[in-house]
Fold this protein.
Amino acid sequence: MQNGWKSYKPKFLEHSNQASGTDKSLINFKRLWKQSIIITLAVVLLPLFTLAVLDYTISKKALESELLLRSSRLVSNLRRNLTSYLEERVFALNFLILDNSYEQLADENRLKQLLEHLKGGLGVWYDLGLVDHTGKQVNYTGPYNIRGVDYSGQDWYKKLLPKEQETHTDSNAAQSDVSDVFLGFRMTPHLVISVLHNDPQGGHYILRAGLDIEQLNAILSHTELGNNGDAFLINHEGIIQTPSRYYGAIMQQCPLPVPPFSQRTEVIEGQNHMGQEIVTSYAYITGTPFILIVVKQKDTMAGAWESTGNNLLVFLAGSVLVIVAVVAGISTYLVDSIYQADQKRLALLHQAEYANKMASIGRLSAGVAHEINNPLAVINEKAGLIKDLFTFRKEYAEDQRLLGLIGSIINSVDRCATITRQLLSFARNVQVNVQNINLRHIVNDALEAQIKAASSRNIVIDVDIAEAIPEFPSDRGKLQQVLINLVNNAVAAMKEGGRLGVKSWLADDGAQVVITVRDTGCGIPAENIEKIFEPFFTTKSGSGGTGLGLSITYGLVTEIGGSIGIESTVGVGTTFTITLPLKYQADKGGTHAGTVG
Amino acid sequence: MRVLLVDDEEELVATLAERLDMRGIDATWATDYRTALTLVEEKEFDIALLDVRLPEMNGLELKRQIGARQPKMQFLFLTGHGSEEDFEACSAESGKECYLIKPVQIEVLMAKLNEICSGQGEPG
């Protein structure tokens, strides 16, 4: 896994900006990479998150209001059902009281018959009773023995009585009352509907019927409320009128506060007595003491929202993952491309700097050689004259010691002259003699001079010149000199035998010839590689090397439009690589032109 | 053989003249172009050995001036410099073989002088 990452890890992440000079990159790639990722992510993710939060909020609100609306609609429908249920029963009693005279209603059999009709037509009626103007129940049919009971002191009776000041334009209009649910004499929860009849001849009487609340319960319990939903009736005092799932039994005080009166269906949010978040929808049922209450727990309502929210979260997380991956990938690719380009630029800069340095050294060499040559010439002539004097005048001619000293001076001058000539050769851009050359012949010629030395040192020579290399224009003499220098170096590096390989092939672009001269000699330490082409740099101190061979080689290769490079490992060997253009181009840089006066 | 030596380095040119004298060559020297031209007016020479870089007038121009006065005279250039311009100029003027870089061994110089004088060298 770690190796896998290493092989994919872009190089710029390991790049250190410690280097100085031209090796120092102008760009901090790690920082660039991080900035690129962070900025792109910020630009992409911020709007995404903002939209997600907005969408979340709006969707949540929409869903909540939708749920509240649904709850409110449910309560409205329930109210309508309950109202029409109760109104039907009030109308039925109204019909009876109008359709029958007091006398008929006071007849026990008639009343019994009417109860039977009611039961047959409109469900569960308990009983039916007639209360006269004194509040006394004068007739009764039903399961209980409550004939003769006096209701005159009861609230419902008082409420129903015609007010003194009220004048009834419609004598037939009946007044009605729907009672709270109560236990009463029957000791079972029921409600009573009473209808008052004002007799046109004066006086009034009330038809009163007990109604089982089972049908009310059925209407409420058949309502689809979902989990934890509760629908029940309370009266204006907050006493529970129909069974509730969570808020107490019938006739108990409801723990929820009695909601304020409203003509319309209302929805309020709050907490119940158990601390749960609830949404309470309620409606006052007109003409009755009932308030319809529908309670839903918020967390249940939120269930639908949760799945929507979760989907949104999953979508968001997925999007973020994809965006992060794509942004990281693209940033890495782009920064890596810039890094590669920058590395190429640095390499070219380094190369140019090196060529420039070599050119400076060339100019310096020419100047030094010139300045030294003149005094050298004077020394040479003076010493020569002394020698001449000794030679031409017989009195000194016998003094071998003096002659030896003079000879030594002249030899030293000669040695200096050799060095300055080589320096000039390195520095001077002499005319090139371009002709079509056969590389194989030139390599063979260069090797020929060393074959003897090589075999005596147990050096094996391999030559591999690709057949595909055509004859190409170059300076035969210079190229030969280059190869001779490199072969000499290689042989010198392999004092105890080894393998000398000269190989050549066409470069991939087909426009260049690559020649390598490889030895298995002592190799060159890394710290010396940089200086290897500089004049006077030598590792062969004491063995007569002037340190000019490779600098001259460098100058020659440059003159014929080529380039030379070196790779070396101590103890393994050295490879010089020369690249020459197939189409001849002279050195344009003038890197070694001796233009110093 | 009469040789005219011109070099701004008196130490060099005087010593060289003396050495050539010892070898039976009639060597006369000058350190500037005026003296050189005066000498050419006064006396005939076979060969002129000229420094390429002379103050006021370079060796190549001096060669033309001397050549105008003594058309039969031959030339050999001597320089301490190895610049491309010098090389190209000398090659053009006197041929590659007539160009020597200081310091020069007396034997090499003698051989060259003899070569030119005997007509084997390229005409200047």
